[in-house]
TrEMBL record:
The protein's name in its UniProt record: Exosortase
GO BP terms: proteolysis
Keywords: Cell membrane, Hydrolase, Membrane, Protease, Transmembrane, Transmembrane helix
Superkingdom: Bacteria
Amino acid sequence: MDTSGLVSSVSWKVLAVIVAALVITGLAVPDTYHTLHELWTKNNETYSHGYILLGFAIYVLVTDFRWQQFSPSFAFVPLAFAAGLVWLAAEAVQIMLFQTLVLPGVLWCVLAAMVGFRNSLKTLVPVMALYLALPIMDILVTPLQNLTTWVNTRMILATGITAFIENYDIHMPYGIMRIAHGCAGLNYLLAGMCLGVFYAYLNLQRVSLQLKAVALIVVLSLVGNWIRVFLLILIGYESKMQSELVHDHGFFGWIIFAVLAVFFFFYAKRLEAKDGEFTSVGSKPSLPLNGKMLAAVGLTLGAFVVVPLSWQVLRSGISADPISVTLPQGLAKFKLTGRTIDSAGAVYQGSDESQLYSARQNGYRLNLIVASYRSQKQGKELIYYANKPAVKLRQRTTIEVDNVPLNVAQSSSAQKVFWLYRVGQRTTLTDMDTKLAQLTGLLNTPVVSVFALQVSCPRTCPATAQITKDLASELSALERIEVR
């Protein structure tokens, strides 16, 4: 690796290609990039290292000449197009996680189009390291939280601190401390893995030594978090919960991490001594800009970009006309109220049309909720964790009323709720089936809706079978509501 100076050690052509790839894909999928920006700019949060990691990955790619042997290839155009289709599928069902996961893959396709498959394999470490800043790593939160709780329980018992431990809560004489998700230590683990991976990649050649370096920093990151949590418990106990660190301890953890990182670097130097002299290309390779190379990179980028751009054109053709709702004969007695669906305890954020109808039948007070979406995006979607047809639903199950499948759940002792989803002309019950229906109807961009019937009883509601018998015509008519 050429180390004669910063300017001379940078491959400006490679940097230009990487920057162009980031800018062009960012313009094609701005919402996905905006999500990452929000994720990476939350101070002291799990992924606050995102921009630092991206910058360092780019630095490694443009200064490491071991892979920079231009050998243009068009073989990665289909793979980039496939990445675009994956992004489109994730956009259709509004799973932002999958949309972000394709971005490092697209970058690798562009690099591979520039230097060929064999040389591109040498870029996998810095490119794959970008996944350490993507929310897929959240799957580790609960296991790490459980492990931190288990370790600190043993440390509390060993030191004789007066405390009662219940799940993640530590009850002490002066208050309760909770080992929350933030105490799992995922942010320190990811930062440590980034440090270990890049150090091993840049300074070690033997795979066994690289694995030792990464394993060491992983262990130190975990141990450092356990020490941090235990010290906070100890400080809270001794200060009777009055210390400022009990409530604001984000920076405290990074101090411990930095101290342990010093030990990592001392050990890593010993690994370098065992590894011998590090060899690299040593001189800047020839990187001729020719028509084939530019075409390979351009077509690869274009193969990905054409998918989201086509999707934007398709969505621009969605009708802006108001959504109309037509109730069938079985629901003719329902009258449109002037109230919002929120007043009935239903929440469907960002719906393009929502209506609340009411009626009385067989001693029951009925609320009919219709909420529809003509277009969807993150936070403005039918299937969303915050959306619900009523408050505090429990005991959810499915039933059939005159061959019409319905969800049913208890909202309170005096209310039951029946509901189904409509995607175009297709009826669904579960979140997964609704997402898949949206995916299969992608090109038609159908209106998606929820139809819910809240049944309020005079006192405690009878069994579901009795309610379905009393309201059979109303419940079976839910499927026949028309939304245009």
